[in-house]
TrEMBL record, chains A, B:
Name of protein: BTB domain-containing protein
Every BTB domain range: 89-164
Cellular component per GO, a single term: cytoplasm
Entries under CDD domains matching the protein: BACK, BTB_POZ_ZBTB_KLHL-like
Pfam families, alphabetized: BTB
Amino acid sequence: MRGRRCDHSQVETDTDTDSDTETMRCISCKEEYGTIDAGTCKECYEEASETEEELKREIEDLKAKVAFLRFWSQLDHHHSNRSFGPCFTDVVLVASSDTGSTGSPVPVPANKAVLASRSPVFKAMLENEMEESRSGTIKISDVSYDALRAFVNYLYTAEACLDEQLACDLLVLAEKYQVKHLKGYCEKFLVSKLNWDNSVPSYAFAHQHNAKHMLDAALSLIIDNMDKLTKREEYMELVERDPRLVVEIYEAYLSKQVNTAAQRVLP
Amino acid sequence: MRGRRCDHSQVETDTDTDSDTETMRCISCKEEYGTIDAGTCKECYEEASETEEELKREIEDLKAKVAFLRFWSQLDHHHSNRSFGPCFTDVVLVASSDTGSTGSPVPVPANKAVLASRSPVFKAMLENEMEESRSGTIKISDVSYDALRAFVNYLYTAEACLDEQLACDLLVLAEKYQVKHLKGYCEKFLVSKLNWDNSVPSYAFAHQHNAKHMLDAALSLIIDNMDKLTKREEYMELVERDPRLVVEIYEAYLSKQVNTAAQRVLP
C-alpha cells in the first residue's frame, strides 16, 4: 500500500560490491532495489502521491454529499417495532401477491416526490392523475413484501443489503420501474456471484430482464465450458423452454471460434 | 501526471560514462534519471497505479450515487419560464422581507419530506404540527427571494452556483436551519476567497455565524498582518461596533507570539 512516506535520503550507494551495481532505497516501501527493479523518478513519485491525496479528498467530499442526499427513510427502523411516526408520506405501495399475516397485504408507505424523482415510470404514473395517484395506492404484482420494502428503501437511500434472491427480485423491479442505478447495482452483485453452476439460469434470467452486462458475463462463462454444457440439466430444460436462447449460445460460440481462427491466420 | 504507462524495458545502463553512474528510465514520465533522483521500486509503482485506478473507480461509483440521490427539483427550470407542472409539493417557503414585483412575496414551493430530511429544524417544525405545518407556509425572515430559492434548490440537489454574497446568505440560512453540509460548502468557498482586504469583515461574519473554519482562516490572515491592521477603516469600525472581537484578535496575536518565543527557546 502507498502512503508510507520517508525522508528524502533514499539513495544508498552500495560501495561494497561491484562499482556498476548500485542499490537504491524505495521511497515507498523502504526496501532496497537495484536498477533492474527501478520504477519511477522522485518527481513522479511525489506527483503521484499528491494525485492520490487529491483523489482521497474527492472521495471524502463525495461520501459527505451522498450522506447529505440520502433520504431519511421511514423504513430504516422497521425491525425495531417502533411506530413510524410522522414521515410525510402520501402514497403506499402494496405487494399484490403478498398477503401478510393478517390476510391483507401490508402497505409500504412512501412519498410521491421520492418515487417520481427516482423512477420515470412512477413519475408518469403519479403526474398523470392515473388510478394510482388518485387512490394513493400503487399495487405491485409478483413481488414479496420484503423485496418491495427493500426496493422502496433503495429509492430513499441508494442502499440495499443484497443476497442473490433479493438481487434478482430488485433487478426485476428496477427494470420494470426504470431505476437504472439499482439495476446496475444488482447486476454487478449477480455478476460477482456467477459460477459454472448458476451460469445457465443466470444467462436465461439476464436475457429475460434485459441485463446486458450480466448476459455477457454468463454467456462468456458458458462458451468457455461448451464441452460440459449439453450434459447439464439446466441446458436440457432451456432447450425445452426457450430454444432460441440456446441458439444464441451456439451462435456466440461459433462467432468466437471464427474470430479465434481468424486471429491465428493473421500474422 | 500519472497514467502514462510504458513497457517494462525501463532500465538503460549508460555505458558511455563513468561506470558507477547508471541512468534509468522512469516508468511514468519516461525521462532518464540517476540514482540521486530515484523514487520507488517497480513493485511499489505498480501497486500505486492499481490503488489509483481503484480510487478512480470509487469516485465514478460515488458520482453515480450522487446523481441518483440528487432530488428532482421543481426549481431547476425556473429561468426557462416554463410552468412548474405537478411536482408533489406540499409546502411553500416565503421570504418575508422580499415583496417581489407584484407587492406580495413570491412563494418557493417545496416538499415537507425533503425539508425534514435535510434539516433537523424543519423536521421538528413540520412534525410537531406547528403553525408552519398547518398552514403549509414557512416564512423566512431577512432573506432575498434568490437566496431562498438557491437554499431550497441546494436541499434538493446539493448544488449551488455561489458568489460571495450568495455564499454568505446561504451560510446564514444553513446555520439557522442546521444544514451542516451546506454550511461547510459555503465556508470552504468563502475561505477560498479570503484576502487581506476582506479579512476583517470576514472575521466578524464568521464570528457572528459560528463558522469556525472560516474564523480560523481569517484570524490567521489578520495576525500575519498585524502591523497594517490598526490603519484599516474596517478595524476602526469593528472597535466601535464589537470591541470584544478586537480583543480576541489581540489575544490570538499574543498567544502566537508567546508560542513562537517558546519554540525559539526549546532546543
